[in-house]
Design a protein that fits this description.
Belongs to the BCCT transporter (TC 2.A.15) family. By secondary structure, the chain is mainly alpha-helical. Helices cover 68% and strands 5% of the residues.
Length: 670
Amino acid sequence: MSHFKIRTTLSKGVVVPSLFFILTICLLSAVYPVFTENLLNSVKSFIFVNLNWIYVWSVTAFVLFLVYLMFSKYGNIRLGRNNSKPDYSFFSWISMLFAAGMGIGLMYFGVAEQMQHYSNNVFAANTPIQRAKDAQLFTFFHWGIHAWAIYGIVGLALSYFTSRYRLPLSLRSCFYPLLKDKIKGRWGNTIDIFALCSTFFGITTTLGFGVVQINSGLESLGIVSESSFTNQILIVTVLVSLSILSAVSGVDKGIRILSNINIIGVLILLFFILFLGPTVYLIGSFTEGLGNYISSFFSLTFNTHVYEADMQPWFHNWTILYWAWWISWAPYVGLFIAKISKGRTIREFIAAVLLIPTLFNFIWMSVLGNSAIWFDMNIAQGALSDMASNPDALMFGFLEYLPLTEFASYFTVAIIVIFFVTSADSGMFVMNNIATKNARISPKWQTVGWGILLSGLALLLLNAGGLAALQSMTLITALPFSVVMLLFIVSLVKALAIDQNYYERDFSLTTIPWSGTLWKDRLKTIVSYKDKAAVQNFINTTVKEAFTELQHEFAENGIEVRLNTHEQPLGCKLEIKYDVVNNFVYGVRLESRAVSDYLLNEENLPDVEQNRTYFPKSYFGDDRKGYDVQVFTKNELISDVLKHYERFIEIISEERNELFVSSDSNHRLK
């Protein structure tokens, strides 16, 4: 009797704990929405009030690090092999990056954020003009370089380690320089569990809010009579079905095509509002707002409003909430960005991720937000300010003050729908990627399963009023992940230094005097890994003989040379004493280094039997970096000493080096 077996690529070590945690939190939020929301809100409030400095410093570190990398020597390193080419055109790449990174949020907050800042009581003492300027400035701050730096750190680390080191597309891979092969075990599973839960919570809450806004739009158009749960079920069923079809078709087809359509739709809506709204005012306010953002960049970055007690609640509920929100979304967006960024250079990646979406966000927020404020001040007589607390309906209320209101509303709903689908399909793709440890080919039922789980739990929470609790949970997870992201920087710094050194490393200095005469002996030396006794023998014979012969020859020329041996570490030193300038020193000592675990199991190097190899290393009196001299013959070692002695004589003969070569340090040698 044959047993039917379901094919799966899911990793039990990641999926089982993740689903348990996800279902537990969602069920608590649905069954006990008030209790769960109050509990999680208390935790969130404690973090925002007492630990907000962690977010401020972390986000600042992300921005400064990426800017440094963009202008550093590491900027030319390619995310992939040195000859790799990008998989997608620049337009498709930016479109997908943009749709995943901001998505529904642009439509939800395009009008709402500036109107909420503009009408907030904390700014009531300011003039309407000043409130309008501040509203734009804070919106730029929250949707600008800082937000994209958060995504950029995760995306860059993932793209670098997966495309260049050829590790799995998984957050665990970003810890390879720190954990090495431990990323394959429990440590790696823990990191991926965190990433999967954070991604699921972030997407579920965002899709829940997206459904509410779509329902509100359909209600304003008269397509549905009310914002009911039945309508929300229909909306979710249709949109998630489209998302599943898109996700199943893959990044190259569904996600890429929808993202391109999305960006074109957004541009059409943008130009529609720009040219049919207060055009001159919008262009002028954008120009002034951009200058205001640039001039205020550092004061905004470090401002914690600690001296302004009245501003503290606003600061916690906006700036800190945004940093936490972007950080909680970073695993999802970073994974997706990494997937589509292979072949770009680090400089190209950072410049595109930081600047292009930021500039577009500024234009978008200026056109929509400033239009709404202008209408509110000049036509609506405060009506839009009164709607600021209802962001679901505010976008459609704003469109009523533009020509072709019905067309614009239908078009806006269509864009929100496509944003919903692109966020959901890329979310399914990313979650399946995390859950399978980046399996190359997975059965399609898994993607469908993630879609059903997303939609089912989003509807459950919408019906029970538990979305706010889940949003709080999402924001809480951002605190530990901000620390994880700081460790990504440590990993990147370590890996990039090794990468640069690998490709820039020149031939060893020991190869300079080589000829083809002793090539067989040199080959044996190169492929052998010396034990301690062999190196000790080299120092006691070849090195001592070379130094002794040099000592005699220097004496023939009237120069006294001291020859010393030392035991800790074992070595031999040749020293020429001077009264006015530093002594000339050339020595060789025993040193060791660890051998890579990979080489211990390498059949082509059969004599590697232990994890340390020993070698004789040169050293000098001026603390310059020495090198391995084990392949030198006696005469080549003599030649190397004379080469350094000639350099020494040239340096001390130049007047400009007088202070540098003074004999102060000789007193320490006596």
